[in-house]
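User: Hi! I'm working on a homework problem where we have to compare a predicted structure to a textbook description. Could you give me the structure for the chain below?
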Amino acid sequence: PIKLTLDAPAGVKLARAELDSGKGEKGDADTFGEKGLGFVVKVTADKAGDYTINGMFKFGVCDDQSCHPKRQPITIPVHAK
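Assistant: Happy to help. Predicted structure tokens:
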């Protein structure tokens, strides 16, 4: 399974803090396939400004014989007008 967990800074609200795609299933992903995966992250800011959403992207690198879980920290810059 693939999971994106987000932590919004003060003044920013996330529609969802956890997004996932199940084993071989699209789940919350906007796009899901062999060549890519995309999640839409919906946010609302209390006021104009620049914000940074931090998160953790959890996934697995697999072949026919084994799977290796991975974790990758991510940051999403947000500019609210």
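For your comparison, note the following. Strands lie at 2-7, 12-14, 18-21, 31-33, 36-38, 43-45, 49-62, 67-80. The mean pLDDT is 92. Good luck with the assignment!
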